[in-house]
Amino acid sequence: MVAIGGLALIKLGGSIATFKEKPLTFNSDGVKSISRVLKGVVDASGIPIILVHGGGSFGHYYSVMYDMHSKPAGYSREGISRVRCSMIDLNSRIVSVMLDEGLRPYTLHPSSFIMEAKKVIDSRVRELYEVSKHGLIPVTHGDVMHYQDDLYYILSGDEIMSILAEHLRDRVMVALFTLSLDGVYKDMQSRELIKELRYASDAKMDDVGMDVTGGMRRKVREGLRIASLGIDVWFVNGNHPERIADVLKGNDTIGTVIRGSRGEESRGEDRRV
Ligand code: IPE
Fold first, then answer.
1. Average pLDDT score over the chain
2. Which long-range contacts (CB under 8 A, 24 or more apart) does 202-205 make?
């Protein structure tokens, strides 16, 4: 197996780790199949991985219930507690499955590298990379974060992907988002898959269901941001974990890719959502 060099950032979408329509329901089999595939890749190539998971029917369930968003505000105290508690619960279920499948996950909550007022501590992000080099898979996740004073905000796993890519840009070879769709579609009616996405305008996202952190639009925006750092970004269906293996081996697969384009930032607004 020929694996691409460098670090892989993998987003385990909430729609894969949980059953999004059923409150607080963990998709144990889904996480198990992905863990098996990752174990195969790690054993064969030793590729360092950092895993970020979303909220699905855990964190999103409570953030919708308590009307909490990515904008810092004085949200319900009960809501803040419940979102945090549900994310810790989901995280512990995910890492338990990974551990059972022979992986060595190591949770680092986002509050270990993102401080007050959303200040990202570079050395703490680098710690995730250090951990990933020595046989462990750092696992972090979307969460409700303290902003300042009595203000809190929802931080999506997608945004964490961008933060990690930015701070580890010299190390990351690929960023991969797992979804419950085959990739990004031109529009939801035709479900025509975009094999290579170059501009935000390639996809019509008005019809895609939004959640508190912005759904597909947010993912594409973060994907374009990461690609502008020179990193290839893939969106693949997590219900077909072999596609994850394809990407990690540097092969083509069914999905949507945004090719890394360092220096093309000057193309300006076109690449942004
Ligand atoms: C959501 O993270 C985090 C919370 C709601 C606390 P994401 O926005 O990345 O979650 P998914 O992957 O879309 O479910």
1. 92
2. 205/273
Pick from 25, 60, 143, 176 the residue to mutate for probing ligand 1's pocket: most ligand atoms within 8 Å of its CB. Answer: 60
Are the C-beta atoms of residues 98 and 65 closer than 8 Å to each other? no
Q: Which of 118, 117, 73, 112 is nearest to 212 (CA)?
A: 73
41 is written with which tokens?
A: 């890749």
For 79-114, write each residue's pLDDT tens digit.
999 999 999 999 999 999 999 999 999 999 999 999
Residues 40, 49, 23, CA angle at the centre, nearest 5°? 90
Instruction: Name which of 166, 104, 99, 157 is nearest 131 in CA terms.
Output: 104
Q: Which atom of ligand 1 is nearest to the CA of 214?
A: 8
Q: How far is the CA of 230 from the centre of ligand 1 (A)?
A: 25
Which among 12, 213, 222 is the best mutation to test ligand 1's pocket, defined by most ligand atoms within 8 Å of the CB?
Answer: 213
DSSP 207-246: TSPP-TT-HHHHHHHHHHHHHTTT-EEEEEETTSTHHHHH
Question: What is the C-alpha separation between 196 and 215, in angstroms, rounded?
Answer: 20
**Proportion of the chain above pLDDT 70, given as a percent:** 90
Lowest mean pLDDT among 39-53, 97-111, 179-193: 179-193
